[in-house]
Write a structure and sequence with these properties.
Helices cover 29% and strands 24% of the residues. The protein is of the alpha+beta class. The protein has one domain: YaeB-like fold, CATH 3.30.2310. Helix 1 runs antiparallel to helix 2.
Length: 109
């Protein structure tokens, strides 16, 4: 706990989500390494920020998912970090490019 007694959550990034994050990084790095580094830094910063009050972000509801199971945060203007909260842990389960169809989500599999 920090000095302000806020509850801190442990962050766990699923291997599929980690792979997708680096896929996005590698794709962008073909165009601009600097932009790819900014993307990765932004994603990781937003994920780290989930340690405090992950409930502040909206629910991520889709027909193929249990209602209220997931939350999401938009990162870098076009990436959706999808996560669930279980006890004192936040599980990052997917990182999606919002410009792509939902059928690309690893959650729908």
């Amino acid at each position: 706990m920090e000095g302000n007694d806020k509850k801190l959550y442990q962050i766990i990034i699923a291997s599929d989500a980690n792979d997708r994050m680096y896929d996005h990084f590698e794709f962008l790095a073909r165009v601009s390494v600097n932009a790819a580094n900014r993307l990765l830094d932004g994603l990781l910063e937003d994920i780290r920020n989930l340690r405090t009050d992950p409930f502040r972000y909206p629910a991520y509801n889709r027909p193929y998912l249990p209602v209220g199971k997931y939350h999401y945060i938009l990162s870098n203007k076009r990436y959706r970090i999808v996560y669930q909260i279980i006890g004192n842990q936040v599980f990052v389960d997917d990182i999606q490019d919002c410009r792509q169809d939902d059928d690309k989500s690893s959650l729908s599999k």
